[in-house]
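Dear H.,

Thanks for agreeing to be a second pair of eyes. The structure we're designing against is below in token form, covering all 168 positions.
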């Protein structure tokens, strides 16, 4: 008996349609990767340059005062900005790292942050370059599992100036 000849044309058509499906999936994946790449590069355009903070010589005494009072690992004062649309707001960021002498209640923390902001504000020479001061308390503990807490307080210069005027 002679074996019947199988019709392989269906097999080849099926194979061609699988290749077409894979090719179209590849086009979609390439398009998605292209869109994601464009999104990433559009978000990473450099913003405005950070402005240099000019301090009076008394800034060292302010830093030492809070280093003695709060015992932080680091006390850092740096420039920063927020850019929303075309509007850029420059600010001074004061960060207190790993200070375990920070008050527990939010009211006392805010009062301490306001006091730090006032003291730093008094030492800034180029006040017109910035519009606000941000005070951040960052704590981190643990070796294997790290617990991070951060308290962030922002004060506009107008608030600080009116508080300074009230105390006189």
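And this is the sequence the design step returned. I haven't edited it by hand at all.
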């Amino acid at each position: 008996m002679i074996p019947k000849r199988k019709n392989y044309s269906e097999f080849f058509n099926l194979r061609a349609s699988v290749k077409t499906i894979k090719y179209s999936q590849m086009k979609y994946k390439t398009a998605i990767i292209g869109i994601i790449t464009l999104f990433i590069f559009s978000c990473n355009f450099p913003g405005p340059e950070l402005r240099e903070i000019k301090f009076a010589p008394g800034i060292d005494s302010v830093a030492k005062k809070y280093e003695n009072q709060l015992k932080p690992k680091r006390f850092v004062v740096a420039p920063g900005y927020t850019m929303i649309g075309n509007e850029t707001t420059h600010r001074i960021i004061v960060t207190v790292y790993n200070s375990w002498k920070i008050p527990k209640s939010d009211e006392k923390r805010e009062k301490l942050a306001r006091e730090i902001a006032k003291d730093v504000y008094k030492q800034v020479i180029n006040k017109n370059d910035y519009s606000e001061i941000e005070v951040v308390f960052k704590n981190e503990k643990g070796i294997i599992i790290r617990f991070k807490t951060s308290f962030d307080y922002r004060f506009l210069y107008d608030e600080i100036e009116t508080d300074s005027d009230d105390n006189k």
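Two observations from my side: The longest strand covers residues 74-84. The radius of gyration is 30 Å.

Warmly,
E.
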